[in-house]
Design a protein that fits this description.
Rossmann fold, four-stranded parallel beta sheet, 6 strands, DNA-binding, DNA recombination, alpha/beta, two-stranded antiparallel sheet, Resolv_N, Recombinase family protein, SSR_resolvase, 13% strand
């Protein structure tokens, strides 16, 4: 029967701060209240909560060690799980295997020990998932806004543009010759030409070797620009 703690932060900056230390102190404290002694605390630093527990470096070690009679302690439910469904499924599996989970935010009793604990875990798991969805939505909106302003959101520059700058400040600048080729693509598409046919025409007329996928993306991007 072993007692394991687990801490996690999503960025290396947080790992260098006090967040991990605070999580460890809370884990040790709640274990003492529960009359337990923590045998080892596993730490995943700079690991996103979207990564399944078993696929994280330290989380994978923890999962591999767990046996019937063991107890896992964490400070908050989102330190362990990536979604409400993931939390509820895993906790059920652990319960059936004789493994307890104590979450500092829920008190010193295992989350399956009472109806109240189970209810709180379900509610807070969904809250954690909702918060991650909001963060993801904000990131998507930020990328869309940057793209609309001519910013580059990663990867190689699409046909018709060249990348200027690096990192968050990277921008896309139109390449005149390639833009003329895209104009021709638009014209050919309007006449009913296939994507592969358009790619072949662009190669013959402009000398640019582009795939039918690149043609599709260029037409899509031009359509989005025309809507703005």
């Amino acid at each position: 029967m072993a007692v394991y703690g687990l801490t996690r932060v999503s960025t290396l900056d947080q790992a260098e701060g006090t967040s991990l230390d605070e999580q460890e102190r809370k884990i040790e404290a709640i274990a003492t209240v529960a009359g337990l002694s923590v045998d080892h605390i596993f730490t995943d630093a700079g690991i996103s909560g979207s990564v399944p527990l078993s696929e994280r470096p330290a989380g994978g070690e923890l999962v591999a060690l767990l046996q019937s009679g063991d107890t896992v302690v964490c400070s908050k439910i989102d330190r362990l799980f990536r979604s409400a469904a993931d939390a509820l499924t895993t906790v059920k599996e652990w319960q059936e295997s004789g493994i307890d989970l104590i979450v500092v935010a829920f008190g010193a009793d295992p989350v399956t020990a009472s109806g109240t604990s189970k209810l709180m875990m379900g509610i807070l798991s969904m809250v954690a998932e909702f918060e991650r969805d909001l963060i993801r939505e904000r990131m998507d909106e930020g990328r869309a806004a940057k793209k609309a302003k001519g910013g580059h959101i990663g990867g190689t520059a699409p046909f018709g543009f060249r990348k200027l700058g690096e990192g968050r400040g990277a921008m896309l600048e139109p390449v005149e010759a390639e833009q003329r080729a895209i104009d021709r693509m638009v014209s050919l598409k309007a006449k009913g030409s296939s994507l592969r046919g358009i790619a072949e025409t662009v190669k013959n007329e402009f000398g640019f070797v582009v795939s039918h996928v690149a043609v599709k993306n260029a037409l899509s991007r031009r359509g989005e620009q025309n809507k703005c």
